[in-house]
Amino acid sequence: MDFVFGILGRTAMRLHGNVDVKWSSPRVRQVLAALLVSANHRVPVDDLVSWVWAEHEQPPRNALTTIHQYVARLRQVFDTYQVPARVEAGKRGCLLEVAPESIDHVGFARAMARARGFRDAGQGQRAHAQASEAVGLWRDTPLADLQTEPAEQWRTRWLRSEWIPANAFLAAEQLAAGQAAAAVGRLGELERSHPMQLSLTKLMVRALAAAERPSEATDYFLATHRRYRAAGELRAADELLAVHDEVIIRGEGTFPRSPVPDPRAEAEPVPVVRHLAPDLENVDGRDELLVELDAFTTDSAGRPRRGVVVVTGSPGVGKTTVAVRWAHRAAGRYRDNVVLLDMRGDSQAKRAEAGEVVDTLLSLLDYPVDQVVSPVARAAKLTRLLERRPMLVVLDNVRSTDQVDSLIGVLASCTVVVVSRWQLKSLSAKLTPPVVTVLPLDPRHAGGLLVRRIGQRARHDRDGVAALIRMCQGNPLALTLVADRAAARTGTRLATLANALQDAEMLLDLGDEGDLPARSLRSAFTVSYRALPPAEQRVFAVVGLHPGAEVSTEALAAADGRSVAAVRRSLDVLVAAHLIEYPADLDRYRVHDLLHVFAASLAGRLSDVDAARQRLLEFYLQAAFEAHRLLYPHKERPPLPPTLVPAQQPLFGSAVSARQWLLRERTNLTSAVRVAAGHGRHDIAWMIPSVTGDVLDRHGFYDDIIVGLTVAADSAAAAGDVPAQASSLNDLGHVLLLVGNDNEAERFLRRALELVDAHGIVIGRISVLLNLARGRLHADRAKEATSMYEEALELARGLGEPERWAAAAHRLADALLEQHGREQEALRLYQEGLARRAGMDDVAGQIQSHIALGELYVRLGRLADAERQCRCASDLVNEGQHLPAAMKLNTVLARLRHAQGDDRMALRHAGRAVQLADRSRHATGQARAFAVLAEILHAHGNREDARSLWERAAELYRGRERVTKAQQIEALLAELDAGGPLVPAAREGERDTVAMPPPRLRLGRDPGGADGRN
């Protein structure tokens, strides 16, 4: 069996027909091995690092850049040798696209699946050949190039679930074919590396007996049996004893053997029973689940295993479909004795109890049930019948453990598959059965389902299909209902249908067309909802009030009105019902989009829906205020409005946890602002953005800030709160300047200036002037900017307001540096601003002042002074908390190191600046970083890369209408083309949009009122 990629040993590729394990450097091979484990799935960069870099190794400081480099090398190998694969890397992770069958471990699994199929069909020779071919793919320890914890976990799991069962299967086939000596040799080799594996030890006893080596079989049994008992594995010891007694004492069970007729069969014939829904040939995206069910229901030799397996999942996800498809596939192992029974646990009809199941099975076995009156005697009779002819029993739609508990003993000789939309925790605690969880379909298989059911029209309307996939979120019931509607309405474009189904009520009721039983999402979800106790029904409806799909326990408790502990207990019930789920964070919950729509439809029925929504919004406001207070204690905040929610116990133990909460709740906070505005809570709608903008700004989440402030400005206007409206407009203008939308920024800032002037808000005029001046500086109108900055500084000094004072001094220095010959004035102003910021313990502001001073000292040639300032900034900056400042600091350090002649470090800092600029999507920061990196590369003779970076920098400056900056770069490009000397721009960079914290209007109605951040 040929393969292209191999991980069953050292990482290999088949190049020119030969298997090569030294096709690249060790690290590149490790990256490929990790990607092959998750081929055709995007692997997050952090996950890839944990797979590749062992615990004793130092992980890369910049993981994305490092991974990019190795992926580029992989791509080069693929191109050189024409390997049929594609690999890419980006912020969302790495993706290796490759035909699954070209990977050896996938080929191994498929070969073993074919082998088991041949065995079930009675084709022993073909089963033996396929298993031998699969086992032959082993070259060495799987993932031999990776010595990390994730690789070890995968390796252990694969050996237990794939390698050992495959070898046990092959040994069993060898015994059946009369090759006992070969089976003994294979089992002996396996036991050395996998000692005390019960499936292997039992086979070894059989193999030694079949090889006519009974004394060795007994000696082996005695030694192994003692080891099991010494290890406390009494069950394994008993099972091995039973095999020994069977093949050595009684002389039964050897390979090959002919079936021995059961004399009781003539008296009590047991017919073949097949009671199963029709097979479904096209079950999209469930192959792995079918293989998992095979593994849980067969022993090492591939024979049916007695016991219980639970299949669970959320409503409409296709649990029964998977169970039916698998039952048809596995029927051959049970000689077609397969029964599926509907336990009616999710129906309005009376649910099926144990007695009804016993009677049904006896009837299916043609046993006269009426002849036995006692239910206990009937159960005993069924148990005896099933001992002679075990079968596969699928119990579908089970509501609770008590519904099947008494049946487990009766069906002890059978394979029992319990299908339920509930997690059945009591059953799991009692039996610890394997659990197969059916999840929503991935987009690829969801699209396949739609195309198959809709037909040719879907193949030619990819956009429409994509819209339907996004709407259905992988739920097979939703996909089926939508596909059926599309197929029935051939004249409707798929995009039009998707748009119409944005109506939540229409989507939930799709398929409910008067027929019974109802077949809609609402009916499927309602079954689970009605089974909930009242408290849990309420909490699920409250989930529908929440604007996001992921929510914390504290937020839901605030809305519900009960304690956090009580609500957490209710949430555990909802998790057990698969109505919500746990994400990675154990105190947060996530709800599927379709279930969220259903929950929202229920929320409107709450008697206190308005109060519950208000409590939820007030929770977010109070938490955001508390987080801002911890993070920025030196800044003032507007007073909180009266609330229904009592003052919260402190949610955050530190500023770090407050920042993490704000970032984690970022999308929920933005959604809460919209909800507040839509329901008339305009005070909440403008206050939340006022206390979340600082952290979002530091981390580059400008889109969220813009959305929140746009709503905030409108809400403040609707409430008639002029200071709040002016503050929101000013902040919005500031952020638009940061992202390069200067024209829109000017419009909002002009409106803010009109408001503050009309109402005599002096501190507001200072803030707006600072931002308007910034726009002038962007437009290369330095003199106008200087005039505005001077006015702002004079006003701030007059008020004695240190935050605006520092900001105005800093910005005025920036403007002076745009006018040659005024460096000493700028130096004094930077120092003045730094003194004010140090006096009020403004860490972020101090970082910006140190960076600006460091850059100015580099320009003046005072490198020792520049070094000191950069060191001060480095001591204070944290990339995770001050992203724009870290980006600017690396740019300045690159220039400093270049001036010091240390171009190796200069290149490193310039590269880091580019990466941070990419993360923040800051156009001017990107242009500045590209320009510095280009300058250094050109100094080293790398003209082509320098040209590319300068071209990108010029394009970014043009996009931001920084004409002078663009022209300076273009002049360098012209000189580069002409081959003449390059004269770097006198001042490269824009000091006012990265280092300076945004001026904010936190103002009262008089000049001495509360102020906010800069």
Order of neighbouring strands in the sheet with most strands:
6-8-9-10-7-11
Portion in beta strands:
5-15%
Helix content class: 55-70%
Shape: globular
Profile the largest sheet.
6 strands, parallel
Through-space gap between termini: 68 Å
* Global Rg: 35 Å
Q: Poorly predicted ranges (pLDDT <50, ≥5 residues)?
A: 256-270, 983-1014
Number of β-strand runs? 13
Put simply, the count of helices is 46
Q: Whole-number average pLDDT?
A: 85
Q: Care to describe what's here?
A:
It is a single chain. The protein has a six-stranded parallel sheet, with helices on both faces. A three-stranded antiparallel sheet has the order 1-2-3, with helices on one face. It has a two-stranded antiparallel ribbon with strand order 4-5. Helix 16 (405-410) links the parallel strand 9 and strand 10. The radius of gyration is 35 Å and the shape is globular. With 1014 residues, it is mainly α. The two termini are 68 Å apart. The protein is 62% helix and 6% strand. It contains 46 helices and 13 strands.
